Amino acid sequence: MSVDDTSNARRDFLRKSLTLIPVVTLATTGGASLALAETKERQRDEDKPGQSARADAYQPTFFTPEEWAFIHAAVARLIPADDRGPGAVEAGVPEYIDRQMNTPYAQGANWYMQGPFQPDAPSEMGYQLKLNPQQVFRLGIKAADDWSRQQHGKPFAELDTATQDAALRQFEAGKAEFDPLPAKTFFAALLQSTKEGFFCDPIHGGNKDMVGWKLVGFPGARADFMDWVERDVAYPFPPVSIRGERA
Amino acid sequence: MAKVMQKADVVIVGFGWTGAIMAKELTEAGLSVVALERGPMRDTYPDGSYPQVIDELTYSIRRKLFADTSKETVTIRHNVSQTALPYRQLGAFLPGDGVGGAGLHWSGVHLRVDPVELRLRSHYEERYGKNFIPDGMTIQDFGVTYEELEPYFDFAEKVFGTSGQAWTVKGELVGKGKGGNPFAPDRSDHFPLTPQKNTVSAQLFQKAAWDVGYHPYDLPSANTSGPYTNPYGCQMGPCNFCGYCSGYVCYMYSKSSPNLNILPALRQEPKFELRADAHVLKVNLTDDKKLATGVTYVDAQGNEIEQPADIVILGAFQFNNVRLMLLSGIGKPYDPKTGEGVVGKNFAYQNMATIKAYFDKDQHFTNPFIGAGGNGVAVDDFNADNFDHGPHGFVGGSPFWVNQAGTRPIAGVSNPPGTPNWGSQWKAAAADYYNHQLSMDAHGAHQSYRDNYLDLDPTYKDAYGMPLLRMTFDWKENDIKMTHFMVDKMKRIAEAMNPKAINVQVKAPGTHFNTVSYQTTHLNGGAIMGTDPKTSALNRYLQSWDVHNVFVPGASAFPQGLGYNPTGLVAALTYWSARAIREQYLKNPGPLVQA
Ligand SMILES: Cc1cc2nc3c(=O)[nH]c(=O)nc-3n(C[C@H](O)[C@H](O)[C@H](O)COP(=O)(O)OP(=O)(O)OC[C@H]3O[C@@H](n4cnc5c(N)ncnc54)[C@H](O)[C@@H]3O)c2cc1C
Ligand code: SF4
């Protein structure tokens, strides 16, 4: 199976191009709208100034200014901008999280939320709190800022980066005591959301300019690798997004 | 008062793999069939249209296509002394929902069964003696043999359009040096399609497995290696390894599903009707509980509706089948204290271990975003009873494989052990390793035990006010012993690849079942088939011993878990059961096996 001689590759190519025809016909709706989206996106890009301006211009609709400052500061430490490239803030992770907070998911709409609740159950029993993601973020950010004020006399966002990192490590390990929910639970939600916002399709507001995908070498929505399956080489094409943006 | 619909010959609960197969077989027999599916209508268009389906956040992370736990879930506890807690968010397993069931968004590893596993207890007793099977392990024979099922395995592969390489066909060796599995039982025919290409990860596994003396083979996949038309006239195009496979609807018409491989043919049948958004509450029985009269369901508007029928098929997936039997009073509930009763008995899972190998960035490009759900290379040297268990003191076997189904970065970024979970070091490792790693599984069989079982929860209810199903389940000593043995054998393959780092994920002794991290959706038992109504809920034709017009296809019928994935056997047993209904039951409705 690993032998890749030219005649095989050619047969594969012929076989694939022949049979692709009916599939493409069946899927016209998707294909056509993709092409349209692409043109629109290009025009929009041309009208806009620098990319980072786009990430900054977003106005949160869920988070308060204090919460927004926390989110910015925290995600900037979780995935920092550094010599390997842009970080969570440049990727638009705060925007992503704010937008997620306005989805049914953030209200716990597809979780089983009937009581009785046993919040102290061992971790292998899964999530057992009564709180939905909106509450986890709202209560968690307040608890983190309260903790920071108590320990260091100022909110998290105003700490220097080394102190912020140390604080995040305390939250992660559950060493910081939060009243409304375990610090660990809040930290896990924050980190998971940060990674989601860094690597999701840009359609969700994060991963701007596909910086997350470019960092790791993920081709995004290309989703057609027939000719690359067997090759032990770097995949050469840059990522594309659902809207048809090209990196 | 519930509205009463016109009577049908057959009502089917659930429209996943088993429901679709039964619907096709029974309409072919001239019967009128109504299928009731609790979830929404789903199909390749619009649910699998490109590019909207190429969205990791929506499908893998927010789990768009899976069961909605806000409506219905299960509760879980580790032993009888604990209070079970609800499975509030999906984690360890991902039940399906909507037309196609889990069959619409499964992966497509399409294996048969090792014949030994169908008569597991008899085989172990014959080869190792009765005392070899530990106390409290309740493994049983299925009551049907591989030879009896072979024609149905063959037909199911033709319906699914499975890609693979036979080892022998009618006794003739055909698969040596071509990707066949020397441990595979004989077949009546070839796979309908040749094996798919192998990813770089699978090639590395194949070579390393040869190097350490194992016998690698191409994993049969229900992802197409070429264009295909199945016996029902349904068409498939070739899989392009898009990498958005498990958890997604295939936009290429390449992954076998009830929606793609059966529904188009059923749509031509005037005697078939599919009702989506129809949540079945229970099977209705006559006063003496000997016969089913139909089912009651709730439609999208919340109306309660009665669907009368002469035959009731439960195709609602393993644990939903068991729950419906318990809610309806079909068969005697199992009691772990006395060991009596049958419904809920022998609940078993899959005993997985995983090894990840990380390569230097100049060593290999495994490109894990390339993949297909059923694709890979496997070895069966330690599956079933392909090696002498005598000196090792545990029951069960495990295939090993690289099954690169496609990973995407939100869930798929995995760094070598010791890397922090965030910050610049995490970021650098993600950049350095994402495209230079592979993952292999020991996909172990899991046995059944007296105190791993299913019943109704006393506290928690679903959105319709009905008790949730309760799982009482934990890992046992045999399971831990087996998985450690397997991971040691598999580690030799990983080491032979000469990676920079490896990460072995195996259950430590004393580990409890973790409901959070995904393992598999291969849940078994609870309504098991067998030869004796005292120890099984169903006879060998998947017919309820107690209510003869109720048939219950699905992995709920397995008396214990397999080394392989279940759907190959689930599909073959469903065809086998349908054939018995067509050829025996319709002529003479009554028990097909005398108790
Ligand atoms: C992510 C994933 C990957 C998988 N990969 C593989 C694989 O590679 N190989 C393999 O062999 N197996 C695999 N499986 C397992 C495979 O999907 C199942 O074995 C198979 O779908 C079982 O068929 P079924 O008909 O029993 O259940 P399903 O296909 O799940 O269908 C059951 C249907 O019943 C419906 N239902 C439930 N309750 C009710 C009710 N009360 N009223 C009405 N309808 C109801 C459900 O909504 C569902 O649609 C995978 C599963 C998952 C989730
Ligand atoms: S990997 Fe292949 S079978 Fe799976 S969804 Fe993509 S094209 Fe379909």
TrEMBL record, chain B:
Q: Which keywords accompany this UniProt record?
A: FAD, Flavoprotein, Oxidoreductase
A Pfam family hit: GMC_oxred_N
Q: Where is the Glucose-methanol-choline oxidoreductase C-terminal domain?
A: 450-573
Keyword Ribonucleoprotein applies = no
- Ranges for domain Glucose-methanol-choline oxidoreductase N-terminal come to 237-348
Q: What's the family? A: Belongs to the GMC oxidoreductase family.
For this entry, the protein name equals: GMC family oxidoreductase
